[in-house]
Amino acid sequence: MQIDQYLAQESCAIGLEAEDKEAVIRRIAELLSKSPAAKDIPLESIVAGLMEREELGTTGLGNGVAVPHCKIEGIEDFCMALAVSPRGVPFGAMDGRSVHIVCGIIGPEGDPDTHLRLLAAAARMLSIGRIRYEMVRSASRFALREAFLYHTSISASCRASGEECRKLLVIVLQEERAYQEIMELFLEMDIPGAVTHKGSLMSETLSAVPLFAGFMDVLGRSKPETRTVLALVPETSLDDMLAGIEEITGDLDSYRGACIMVLSPDMVRGSLETI
């Protein structure tokens, strides 16, 4: 399913602020109304439809996600909207937590199959913690839309090929202890193999330049032996892997001894297992 045809750039927003569910719904309705497919639909009709659906049961799924949706009389195609709130807004979600990501969906009454597929795609993507994290930290509505569409397209591609999606996990570590414990974590999580490289930090290179010689030593900086780890990790295991690494290092947003990058390779052939 090509979700990009339903999600217009004008229907995405960051910095969502609202006092209650009704205000969230109205803001999402305003974004949905900017979609070309909804240009002839009155705003109040969208608001009323979304609120009527909420009366049947909250669309706040939990984990900071809400997916308000409804069928709209007179609309000819589906529309989607995305809004994020880094601080969170009240919504009456099933787990009682504030909502940080809202994905709105409206469509015609006569196409329940597409409606269900869009709902399933949104719910599946937004159930993954790292995707939510990336979306909430988006610096612009363009980045927000691209983050969402990127992950939905990768997921669809894997399902179409029948293959298990794998991500390239790149970890740069400055502490031997953390490196050893992460290797043990790989073994525990049945990661078949990884490649590690020893390297040096920028500060070590600069200290060898005459102009900067001894400068890092004066600042009292350490000279760690860095390691870069490359591993192919099943997408389904990635969240557990990242959580396990943060149990070792602590919160990576405040920890200065490690950096993690997750990449989506266009093609993977072969294995990193030891021969």
What does this structure look like?
- This protein has 275 residues and is α/β, with parallel strands linked by helices.
- It folds into 2 domains: 159 residues, Mannitol-specific EII, Chain A (3-Layer(aba) Sandwich), CATH 3.40.930.10; 98 residues, Alpha-Beta Plaits (2-Layer Sandwich), CATH 3.30.70.
- Helix content is 39%, strand content 24%.
- The chain is built from 9 helices and 10 strands.
- Strands 1, 2, 3, 4, 5 and 6 form a 6-stranded mixed sheet that branches. The protein has a 4-stranded antiparallel sheet with strand order 8-9-7-10.
- A hairpin with a 2-residue loop joins strand 2 and strand 3.
- The two termini are 40 Å apart.
- The model has no long low-confidence stretch (mean pLDDT 85).
Which CATH architecture of the largest domain?
Answer: 3-Layer(aba) Sandwich
Poorly predicted ranges: none
- The CATH topology of the largest domain is what? Mannitol-specific EII, Chain A
Coarse shape: elongated
Short description:
The protein is α/β, with parallel strands linked by helices and 275 residues long.
Write the SSE topology.
Blueprint: E1 7-14, H1 21-32, H2 43-56, E2 60-62, E3 65-66, E4 69-71, E5 79-89, E6 99-107, H3 112-126, H4 129-136, H5 141-161, E7 166-173, H6 176-188, E8 194-199, H7 202-207, H8 215-218, E9 226-234, H9 235-249, E10 258-263
Parallel strand pairs: 1-5, 3-6, 4-6
Antiparallel strand pairs: 2-3, 5-6, 7-9, 7-10, 8-9
Helix pairs in contact: 1-2, 4-5, 6-9
